[in-house]
Write a structure and sequence with these properties.
Blueprint lengths: L1 H15 L2 H7 L27 E3 L5 E3 L10 E4 L5 H12 L3 E6 L4 H13 L4 E5 L7 H13 L4 E4 L15 H22 L8 E5 L3 H4 L5 H21 L5 E7 L6 H5 L2 H6 L12 H12 L10 E4 L8
Parallel strand pairs: 3-4, 3-6, 4-5, 6-7, 7-8, 8-9
Antiparallel strand pairs: 1-2
Length: 317
């Protein structure tokens, strides 16, 4: 029986395009000298981030086991071209959802790969190339997603920008506005326009950050934007509970995504894992499972909350 099961698993991995990832998942060493210009490309990372395989008790990895938790759901995922957003999109497809994904024009290569992986795993993916800071972007993105998906059940505000600076004097006005507009203003207006399409049991999930709690000194503008998004999550949840709409957030710690080599200096990359109790970086799939939970009816009595996925970093809610 075990031989037959292993053979079936091997065939399934080939069909879903996950055979290579299963091998990559076993790699635990990361180069801390990787550096990329914004927004960063997942295809240039070594090793590749893991999107569908979760750690097992014996130190190996196994393919995520879907249970149809999001069957028929329609989700808009901003910044869904790579990293956490890509992992969420693929797991949502495995759970029966269809997705619309926003990406910057320069991220098209990653976005096309995400679309391919979503469709290999049984879902439909629609790509929306858009800078979320541009005038009218939020309403345009929501309307295009609704048209492509035939409606909207879940909004995931995941797109973000960060550029590490050692001191406030080094943060230019341009950088400050780009950070706030991407990380806080865009989610505000995307949520505003999405609300009229979300029916009862609709869900909004915001990607915040452990930085909004611990306040790293070199992440000042980024932490400020994420702290604001945490407050926005709680306030909007209280406001929309009467309408049957739940609003929650996920706060990742250091996760192996293109965000790291694109946003952080090499010195910071070297010490990231040491800041966690588990002494390792997280993988995108280990964060994505929280979005499945919050997007499904498994979390029907949860709103205004933040799930911390950070390897044991201490936070004060």
């Amino acid at each position: 029986m075990s031989v037959a099961f292993d053979k079936a698993k091997e065939v399934a991995q080939k069909l879903t395009g996950q055979e290579k990832e299963a091998g990559e998942a076993g790699k635990t060493k990361y180069s801390t000298s990787q550096s990329q210009p914004h927004p960063g490309l997942e295809g240039d990372m070594e090793p590749q981030p893991v999107k569908t395989h979760l750690p097992t008790e014996d130190g190996g990895y196994q393919l995520y086991r879907a249970a149809g938790k999001l069957q028929g759901k329609r989700a808009l995922i901003t910044g869904g071209d790579s990293g956490i957003g890509r992992a969420v999109a693929i797991l949502y497809a495995m759970e029966g959802a269809n997705v619309a994904i926003t990406h910057l024009p320069e991220e098209l290569e990653d976005a096309l790969h995400t679309k391919e992986q979503v469709e290999k795993n049984g879902g439909r993916a629609h790509l929306i190339s858009k800078d979320l800071r541009s005038k009218g972007a939020a309403e345009d993105v929501v309307e295009r997603a609704v048209a492509a998906l035939g409606g909207l059940d879940i909004l995931i505000n995941n797109a973000a920008y960060e550029l590490e600076q050692d001191d406030i004097s080094q943060i230019s006005e341009e950088q400050y506005h780009r950070t706030i507009e991407t990380n806080l203003t865009a989610p505000f207006f995307l949520s505003k326009h999405a609300l009229r399409h979300l029916g009862k049991r609709g869900t909004i999930i915001n990607t915040v950050s452990v930085d909004g709690y611990v306040g790293p000194q070199s992440h000042l503008d980024y932490s400020t934007s994420k702290g604001g998004l945490i407050a926005f999550t709680r306030n909007l949840a209280n406001q929309q509970a009467k309408n049957g709409i739940r609003v929650n957030a996920v706060a990742p710690g250091p996760i192996w995504t293109p965000f790291l080599p694109a946003a952080l200096k090499q010195e910071s990359q070297k010490t990231m894992a040491d800041g966690t109790s588990m002494k390792r970086l997280g993988q995108p799939v280990e964060v994505a499972t929280s979005y499945v939970f919050l997007g499904s009816q498994d979390s029907s009595y949860i709103t205004g909350q933040v799930i911390h996925v950070n390897g044991g970093m201490a936070t004060v809610s």
